[in-house]
Amino acid sequence: MKIKLVTFAPHPNFGTCLQSYALNYILNKMGHDVEFIYNRQENKPLSFKSNVKKLIKFFLPKNLVFRLKKRYIKSQSNQYTTNSAPYIIKLPNHFILKLFSKLPCYRFFAKKWYYDNIQKRKVYKFTFLDGNFKMKRLFVKSDYNSVVEDADLFITGSDQIWNPYCGGYNPMMFLEFAKGAKRVAYSSSISQPTIPIEVKDRMKKALSKFIHIAVREQKSVELLNQLLDRTDVKLVVDPTYLLSADEWEKFGNRAVIEFPLPEKYIFCYFVGDKRKDVYEEMVQQVKLYTGINKVITLECYNRKYAYGNGRLYKDAGPYEWVYLLQHASYICMDSFHATVFALKFQKEFVHAMKNEENEIGSQNTRMHDILNRYNIAYKNYNNATDTKWQQIIDYKKVNPIINAEIEDSMKFLKYEIENN
Questions:
Q1: 0.85 exceeded by pTM
Q2: 166 partner at 20 to 30 Å CA-CA among 190, 219, 288, 371?
Q3: What is the DSSP string of 82-130?
Q4: What pLDDT is attached to residue 79?
Q5: Is the confidence at residue 211, as pLDDT, over 80?
Q6: 288: helix, coil or strand?
Q7: First-to-final CA distance of the chain
């Protein structure tokens, strides 16, 4: 079957990279012809001023740019709007860029424009050179029409593609372009306690066209059953669960790490930075508790902070992320996918919420969901006086729950593909 997969395209949020890889991998393993379609419009477009700054960086030597002005850090897809109304993204129609993409020099300039450091170039290699994906970028309206004609089925994949505060309400992720094509969702996420009124009707219209809908959090099940007047929205696991620990170990063994690893180290991966004081306190508490002084923090979204007075590793790619997490002695994170992989490799960890509970656009519902599902809510860090997180995870109790969820989710994925 020809399947067009739609989710966030791989980029240096490693959870995003790996959930994309996992669903694509599983669908190929099932014997389907999978094409990953994307349009590079996953958040609010850069302003004119921001594009000018990026052009300056693109054409001028780095040392000159540094002397003229400090490096500009653009808004990333995982940052949020500051008011209550989510941004509405438009499907791009880049006619000139489409023409440029046909030139022999396009890939060179695109790589330099989008992948301007070692970490991003590793993501580029992972995405375009290593045979992990069959990628197709959609530039203009005719591209959307052509994939609709070519598809037997569209699948919206995992991650927060339906969270209107994660970059914005994105019509691509709701398949608004897909006309009468067959469509299903696997492990898509809203990751919000409510659906904003500004997008509720549009979301209802788009999702009403889906034959089957499977989501990643129980709260998303409840919201969509109510929104769509359905009772069949299904709870499934994130695609990263669907690969075995051995398959992820083989994946991680492709890592190229540029420095010798200590025998024991604390691995840190923080997607957010609004609560970095809490993160630092947590890491210091873990150092005291474990007696481990070596800390390795993976850079994400141009974060510059090395937690626990440790090493900031700015050049990691997806393979390095998996390898370092698997071999860590303890893990500190605010990340959903770091939590999934810690569970997959049966590691000890502590998690801090990325957002305040009452914050607009807070993603905390997904973390409360995963920790409560496995009865490990004690692994959420609150403050220095609360030591519940030190409780050891009983994987003899957790693993049967996870394994049953994986089995059920695989069955449903096959069902929604075969019954559409």
A1: yes
A2: 371
A3: SSSSPPB------HHHHHHTTSTTHHHHHHHHH--SHHHHHHHIIIIIS
A4: 42
A5: yes
A6: helix
A7: 12
